[in-house]
Amino acid sequence: MPSVSRVVSLVPSLTEAVAVTLPGALVGATDWCAHPGDLEVVRVGGTKNPRTDVIARLTPDLVIANEEENREPDLAALREAGVAVLVTEVRDVPGAFTELDRVLRACGARSRPRWLDEAQSAWSALVGTPVAPTPERRTTAVVPVWRRPWMVLGRDTFAGDVLARLGVDNLYAGHAERYPRVPVEELRATAPDLVVLPDEPYRFTADDGPEAFPGLPCALLSGRHLTWYGPSLAEAPQVLGAALRAARR
Length: 249
Fold this sequence. Notes:
The chain is an alpha/beta fold. It is built from 9 helices and 11 strands. It folds into 2 domains: 7-112, Nitrogenase molybdenum iron protein domain (Rossmann fold); 128-248, 3-Layer(aba) Sandwich (Rossmann fold). The chain has a 5-stranded parallel sheet, sandwiched between helices. The relative contact order is 0.13.
């Protein structure tokens, strides 16, 4: 594999993974790449509207992207400019570990970082210990990810798999779309055990979300722990589990 010393990341969670594992490898990242907090690199725009001309001028050895977070026309423009692009696909927790290993090795890591092994162990330890009171009585949930219009997690999503491994079944997991638009009246009518409200991509807060679901318990979750695949995976089971249990009380 050719030596890689200059990396641009278009995915916040991958930015954190590379920065923690290979300090100094990143030369560019999106405006949304907020972790680590002291990361000093060239900012190249958003995940959906990166400045491909700026990226090309950085002469990276590799750009890392994701098939869901980044748009194909932008990635095609980078390839046309002669930039190598690695695109990840993450739909579940095991896939996250596989893709993280692939990305880090492509960026120059010679071995798996300790945090990745710790994250995999943390999730492996969850088997048979769901958040629900018993394995037979799992928790049902709807998971809004946007409000104007209302959108929820549907089929085949990483966050949906994270919740399933914590004993929470997404009521829209069988929907034909991955992020269906569903009127809030319909969401209420499903009568879920729980409404899961992450703080990203839409920043639901205690004042912006629960009032739309009167009488239903709501869990305000860290979006970084629910949707990111990176170093935060190691603490995600504990952080998310605690928040889910508190909401079910």
